[in-house]
C-alpha cells in the first residue's frame, strides 16, 4: 500500500470546514456565549455568596480561577506575588478558588508541623526519579518514617562530624583559588567573581558530601568540564520536573534531546553508591566509617520497622540533596555578601568582630560552634539577609484534613489548600 498524505489533508480540511460552518451559525454562537456567561456568573455568585472562604479577604480573580498562582509558579515570580499579597491583604487571604495564603510565622509553623495538614498532589512532581523521596512523599506514615530515618543525620551533632570536609572543600578551596589568582597578578591585586565562586563552592561541598567524590569545581588547575557536565544535568532535572505538567507525549518529545544528560548523571550516582558499598565491605572491624551525607543515607534505618533505604531510594534522595542543597545555599551566601557590600559600615563591624575573636595569626579552624558563640553580629547579618531575601520564596502548599481547621478566626473546611507565603512572612 502506498501512503498518500493528500487523503489525510483533504479529510482534515473537510472536518475544519464543517466545524467552521457549525460555529458560524448564529444560534450556535448564541448558545455557546450563553453557556460561558452562565458558567462564569454561577462561579462568581458561588465565590461571593456561598463559598466557605467568602469572608476571607482576597482579590476577586483569585476566587474565580487558580490561574494567578499557577502563573506565578510557572514564571518564577512567587516572591513578587507573595510580597504584594501580604502587603495588600495581611495574614490570611484567598489566592485560589479553594485555597488561602497565610503569612503569620506562627500559623506557618503550625501548618507545616501538624498532621492536620497534608501534602497535596503537587508534590508528585518532585518525584525526580519516579519514586518518592523525603520531599515528595505525601502519606502521613511515609512522611513520619522518612523523618525518623533521616532526621538524626541532619542534627547539629552529626553534621559537625562533616566540618573538616566542609572546610576543606568550601573555604579551603576558595582560599586556594583566590591565592592562585593573586599569585598570577603582577601588582598583587585581582578581581574575583564572588557569585560564581560561592556557586562553585557549594556545589563542591554538596557533591563531596552526597557522592563521596571530588568534582574539583574550584581547583585552579581544573578545566571545569566535570562541573559543567553535572551542573547542566542538574539544571535539566529541575526543568524536567516542571515539564511533567505537560501532556505525557509532549513531555517526552520536549525532553528527549536532553534525556542522555539525566541518564549519564543517574549512572554516575549509582556508581558512587556502589563504590561506597565496596569501600565499606573492605573496611576491617573497628575501622572508622566516612562521615558524609552518602554514608548517612546508607546507614539510616527506621527505628520502628527496621527498614533501610534501597539503592533506588538512596539514588532518589541523593539527587534531591544535590538539587535542593546547592543553589539555595549558594544564593543565600551571595545575597549576604551583596548586602554587606551595599552597607559598608555593617561589613566593617562584622569584619572587626571576626578579627578580634579570631586573629589572622591564629591557625585554629573557626568551627560552627565557635562562630555561634563568638560572632553574634555576623550571625545577625546572615539572618537579616535571609529575611530580606528568602531564597526559597515559593508558596508551600498543604491540604486541610477532616474535620477542618481554623486560622485567624476563619474556618477552613476539609480539602482547602493552604499556601505558606514564605516571602510574606519574612
TrEMBL record:
UniProt keyword Cell inner membrane, yes or no: no
GO molecular function: heme binding; iron ion binding; monooxygenase activity; oxidoreductase activity, acting on paired donors, with incorporation or reduction of molecular oxygen
BP GO annotations: secondary metabolite biosynthetic process
SUPFAM superfamilies listed in its UniProt record: Cytochrome P450
Cofactor(s) listed in the protein's UniProt record: heme
Keyword Metal-binding attached: yes
Keywords: Iron, Membrane, Metal-binding, Oxidoreductase, Transmembrane, Transmembrane helix
Pfam families associated with the record: p450
TM segment ranges: 27-46
Full protein name: Cytochrome P450
